[in-house]
Task: structure prediction
Amino acid sequence: MKRSLMLFVAASALLSGSAFAQADLAKAKNCMACHAVANKLVGPAYKDVAAKYAGQKGAEDKLVQKVIKGGSGVWGPVPMPANPQVSEAEARSLVKWVLAQK
Result:
């Protein structure tokens, strides 16, 4: 029992640490200038993005490309600019984090 509890605590720490790392990456790549986790700013809240794309096949790949290349029309008239400073690996990591928001 003790070992199971220790493994659970370690896994929880890793997962929450990963979430903090993704939030830090989002800040470092200037995503948070237009987005927030829970509230709409210039762009949609990440929880709203997660809700919109929940269960959609191919959503992750689509959003990775949206992060890198930008786009418009999905969330209103304000376009999302391209983010060439974000690598595909970073975009994928960020998108997975965004899609995990509740």
Observations:
- Residues 2-28 form the longest helix (27 residues).
- Helices lie at 2-28, 46-53, 59-69, 88-99.
- Confidence is low (pLDDT under 50) at residues 3-17.
